Structures are given as structure tokens and as C-alpha cells.
Amino acid sequence: MPSQSSTVPCQYRTGKTLGSGTYAIVKEAIHIKTGKYYACKVINKKLMEGREHMVRNEIAVLKRVSSGHKHIVTLHDYFETSHNLYLCFDLCTGGELFDSICAKGHYYEADAAALIRTIFEAVKYIHDCGIVHRDLKPENLLFRSKAPDADIMIADFGLSRVMDTNKLSLLTEICGTPGYMAPEIFKKVGHGKPVDVWAMGVITYFLLCGYTPFDRDTQQQEMEAIIAGDYAFEPAEYWANVSDTARSFVIECLTIDPTSRPTAEEALAHKWLASAEPHFVPDPDKHGSPTDLLPNVKRAFDGKRTFRKAVLGMMAMKRMTTLASHLTPEQRALERDIFKYKEESEKVRLISAGPILLLTCPCSTGVDGEHCRPAPSQPSAPRFSTNTRASRPDEESG
């Protein structure tokens, strides 16, 4: 008979929902003893059945990069209950990258270069640790706080992989966010760290004009454009105030051949990022001062968002109507599970003035503050449960 997994008192109380996905929701959480706040990723074990290796992989990746770079979100703790797995990260309260930019009163090319330089330094660190992120996009770039000088953080390593070799044939699955995926991912010829450099090229383009280079009406058209490297610095009015140096940086990052694409280290050496003198197009109305990019960037972003929201709404209705008549009983059951899980996640939104609302714990032993099983010390363990205790956030995790 295998030994029963030990239980320890749950050290956290969870609060409002910060975000949700198919298999997980992210909640605000407080460590009871220290009073520190964290972002807690709550993963439904039933919905993840058969995919447990994905969580083990995420933990393995985060243990390599956590606490090693100030611009990478740290994994502080991980444990499980009867129904859920929990991963506790830094709580970033400053919002997503583009939202923070739009909230500023002005935004210059030098600001974009500074942001890209900082992010690329973190990407270089990730690559040096033998990791490829595979889902770099503005939504995964968060500010630690709302302070003007807050650190930008790379988050969400759910699709990341350990890759100690530079062989590009090891990873062949299609993954990521379509508009930021490199051509070799769609081609399924093998990919690696160069896909992160491609994504950084897309992010740079986006930060300079407010829309992505391969934005098309359908995902099929978008994929074809990415594979062909079909993009341009257009409409001209959105690029008139962007320097040739910035454009050349984007062009290098968006090199179709991954073996010819610059590494993160080489990208950092590009003169747009490495030069002490900022590159910009002078504003003729301001006696040669840098041109404020914010008006064009916001206008382009808002226009694309409104259009895309309408298109996606129509596509979703059509897709739901089509799928409803073709779902198998198993698929319908999964759809019900997902709907129920998301419905339950909505119930944990704050309903009081205080920052934390005590919740019913999903484990069978009782409530938040009762007993949970700690996660394994080794991500490759056959089960998530072991006899090791859950670590405090102010201790080394692993």
C-alpha cells in the first residue's frame, strides 16, 4: 500500500479573481503569517487530467528562472488540494504593458526602446538559463506596481520549455498566441529560442504604432502572412515619426530564417538599444524635440480593438452554432465542466470593502485555512503529492 500524502495547514487565504482561462483562474492571495500578497494560479485538476506534465513542466521552468532576475515573475510556492493545484507568484498590480503606456500623458520612441531593452535583457537571462518562453506578448508583460518607475515583469511560463541545446528540431508542436508566433512554429519544422526574438520583433512593432504587423481579417490569412514574412511599415502616417533605426531593429527580429535571426544578446547590441543617444524623428512643431507617438498609437489600438471585438463576436456566434450540433457527449460534458468552473470562479469576486474575502476551500477537508497537500520537491515526481511541507513565500522554493 502506498503511503498517504501528508497534509499541512493551508497558509493562504484567497480573494478576488484577477483572471481566468480554460483550466485555471488567478486569484489574489494573502500569506496568513507574513501578510504578503501574491497572485495565486488555481488549476482545476479534473480539467487538467492527462495534462499534469504541463504543470510539472511549468514548475521546472520557474524553478530555473525564479529570483534570478528582477524583471521575471518569481514562483514563491506551490501545493495542491483534493481538487486544485496552486502556484503562488509575485502580485503585479501595475497592469499590462500597453494599458500603462496609454495611461501616460506622452510616449516617445526612446520610451519604447527603453522598454524593449529591459524586456530583452530578461529574455537573454531566460535563454541563458536554457529556457524558451514561447508566449511573449504584451498581455504577459506586467508592471510590478503603479509607480512611475515600476519594474516591467515577464509572466506566464505555462508554454515555456527547458531547452539546454540549440537544436531546433526538438520542439515541433504548434503553440503560442497566433499573431506573435514565428513562421517555424506554423511550419512545424522545429523551433527554439529564436521564436522569442521573433515575438519581441512583433511586440516592438506594436509598441511603435499600436497594431501588430501581421494583423489580418482571419487567422488563416494571418498565418499565411507570418510564414511569408508579409508585413510593411504602413499606413505611412503611423510610421512617419518612427526612426529608420527602429525599423531596422524590427526587420532584424522578424527575419524568417530562425538560424539567421539575431540572438537576444545580438539584439541588445543593435544600435537602437545599445546607443547612448536616443533615436527619434524630430517634431517640426516643437523645435526639433522628439515626436510624441502616443496619439497615433492610441488611435490605432482603439480602432483595431473596436473592429476586432465586433468581428470576434460574430465569429463566436457562428462557431457556437456550428459546434453545438457536432459535439460528442464527452465534449459536451467537458464544455459543462468548463462552464461550471468559470461560473464558480465568478462567485469569488470581492463583495466587501476589505481586500481579502475568505472562501470555501475546494479540498475535501474543509475551508481555506484548513489542510492542503504540499507540492513535490521534484517536478518529475509521478504524483503532485509528497511528504514535503509547503514552503513559505520568504523561503527558497526548491
From TrEMBL:
InterPro entries: Kinase-like_dom_sf (IPR011009), Prot_kinase_dom (IPR000719), Protein_kinase_ATP_BS (IPR017441), Ser/Thr_kinase_AS (IPR008271). Residues 369-398 are annotated as: Disordered. Signal peptide: none annotated. SUPFAM superfamilies: Protein kinase-like (PK-like). ATP binds at residue 41. Pfam families: Pkinase. This is Protein kinase domain-containing protein.
